[in-house]
């Protein structure tokens, strides 16, 4: 029994504890997507590597370990969350016309719209192959890509049916993860569709914004943590705890993300403070400001975000209103509260290195400057 | 034991035998995608209904039945092949800028590029949810789409983990189908990428064209038949037989599709005879002509397809060369030979209503005029 007054983060440097997991993920990602491959595979590699933060795969690995599973058997599943994430980003860049991603040309800019759409599709579809392949996964399932001749026989493959296990994982668990990932993928799409509907609508209200965030950003956190809990063999109560952790973490993450343009300089975040304003994207602090402000401030805010002012003036006005209404402070507080609630969800799990890492991720979600 | 001289198609009207299955599929498709739903769901319904031929779902149903399974338990899996097919068509229309599909505006034309990309993604990802949900499937997994409040609790769902079965199907079989579908989805993308590479390349050769067809068109036939064989509990030999059937059927289908502009008028096929030429798409009869023709005819063919002639003149020249070189006849013969080989793959299966339907589909693949 863990005494309730002992913090779950008592490991000296929890994020350093995650380093071996991160190294394993990076090594496997590189190995599964070799440089020498057909074009679609090469473009996929370009999208996946050099890797981003690999936060979602890390969450899956640590969630599985937190319930007594984890290790190499869940690596393919962990990477498959990244395939869904990156596939979705590749499509996002097509939709938004973004030419840069992670400091270099986006897939759409480098290879064109057609290849970007097809590569995103392949990553999203291939993830389910990776997931079912378990430890035997080889990326885009290219292992028997024999050229079909007139004989039509070479594409025939008989060794593929999984009957008993996927890389040592029971099929019922893997199937549960498939279901959770499919659901997350659809939720992500629902969030994207909803984001489009909210664009330019300052009056959409915080509730709809939070639903959109839970769908668009929360879905993959949820898939990672719940998927990890299922694959790791967690009890229903443990699955529930990690799912709730993921939902609060997702909100904290998105709230903090929305705050970054106002709290961090654009060279660090890689984002222009103006981009959310230019895209008429309602963000968390702005919606909070809209809800908290009196009528005069609300009119000024709407004018600033309505395209009536030059961009630099608009930003200055928004920033000033966020400060004077107290919205900036309130937004920070609410992001921190979500991170704290995420951590509190971990208290029902056995204390371990993994729960310490998960708690540290929650802290990081509201303290990072990028 | 079936006497070898008894044709598998001795059922009086095999396609009429498929009518109840088609009705079941249509009824379930309509039920699972209600009119009253959120936007993304509505757009998905627009893409799915009115339904096309539902050929791939039919193949899955009949393949399952051919090995002793089938029935309502595999309906969600059958529909999920259609989700992948339609999701891919929605993206195709974005890529090709096509404004019409099945005689009405394409999703891209009606709802715009952004919604078309997101809807295609949702269909492709949702198919795996439908597949794992078995008989309990409800389309886009929207059943617990509670609005997330500040409390972040309403998205929590605990009833989702499949442990023992999916709609009565053993998890090992469903997982096998997940794997086959994921593989098919990636193959489809590989075929699309390859199609882009072959565009305008008359010298690409028949082998590369056939590989592209096997990937782009064959993948979903293969997924449907192999997936059905797995879900129906077929033996490895039966899975192999139905997979080979699907590969030959896919080739016959694509070869015949390429012939349609030259054998059927454009009002029936819904395609302009000029569209393949305008898109510089190497097609089966044209590649065969290129391979069969002497040097002078080859030069004329290259000129006609190189954009040097007015479109109507180009078409007339191509048509004439297809006739004089014998390529049109040869292409027809080879399509028919593939359909015959497809049927011969069925001979190792117990003769049944389902095998008769599958044989009739093979016949239809090279006799249809649309």
Biggest sheet descriptor of chain A? 2 strands, antiparallel
The CATH superfamily of chain A is identified as Farnesyl Diphosphate Synthase
Most extensive chain-chain interface? A-B, 84 and 84 residues
Work out the radius of gyration of chain A: 22 Å
Residue share in helices of chain A? 55-70%
**Secondary-structure element string of chain A:** HHHHHEEHHHHHHHHHHHHH
Oligomer: homodimer
Strand order of the largest sheet of chain A: 1-2
> By helix and strand content of chain A, what is the structural category?
mainly alpha
Task: Tell me how many strands of chain A there are.
Answer: 2
* Total count of helical runs of at least 4 residues of chain A: 18
The low-confidence parts of chain A are 1-9, 135-166
